[in-house]
């Protein structure tokens, strides 16, 4: 009886564990970088004054107004907003938590109502971006909060988070994702 209880306990505990790599395929969009993986920033990155993040897409730094929302991208994010430009120095950041996200896009205000409309494509489906927050830890730069990676902006039925391959493409030569498996 004791042996059966142990087998059941092990099965229950392993069923509850988070599976980061669903397939051994870096192009599969539902694989997540495991906790303990690292992001190695290879060069200094400047976050503009009055902003808390800078975007990376195809290995190029971009501001929020400049990146292509229909392609995978990532953003390095700082904890505090300041009115001066700040630099993130080359460093190795450990991924301490992984959190899935879905952002629904909101359009401009509807005239005379003051309410916001949710973005819809021509078929009436909401337009969304799926991705994940990679919460980062660094003793040298505790002000760096996380890296958020997003897939292409699309309708809710077609939007996927970025694959590990797409994340690496977004980072280019600026940074490197090393998985701890």
3D structure, described in words:
This protein has 181 residues and is mainly beta. It has one domain (21-178). The chain is 13% helix and 38% strand. The chain has helices at 2-16, 164-171, and strands at residues 38-41, 45-47, 53-57, 60-62, 73-78, 86-88, 91-104, 106-109, 116-118, 127-137, 144-150, 154-155, 175-178. Strands 1, 3, 4, 5, 7, 10, 11, 12 and 13 form a 9-stranded antiparallel sheet that branches. A two-stranded antiparallel sheet has the order 2-6. A hairpin with a 6-residue loop joins strand 10 (127-137) and strand 11 (144-150). The longest helix has 15 residues, at 2-16. Mean pLDDT is 84; it is low at 11-19.
Mean pLDDT over the full residue set = 84
Helix/sheet category? mainly beta
What is the ordering of alpha helices and beta strands? Answer: HEEEEEEEEEEEEHE
What is Rg?
A: 19 Å
- The unreliable regions are 11-19
> How far do the termini sit from each other?
35 Å
Question: What coarse outline follows from CA principal-axis ratios?
Answer: globular
Task: Give the number of DSSP strands.
Answer: 13
Total separate domains: 1
Q: Give the fraction of residues assigned to helices.
A: 10-25%
Strand proportion: 35-45%
Count of alpha and pi helical runs: 2
Give a quick account of the main beta sheet: strands, pairing sense, barrel closure: 9 strands, antiparallel
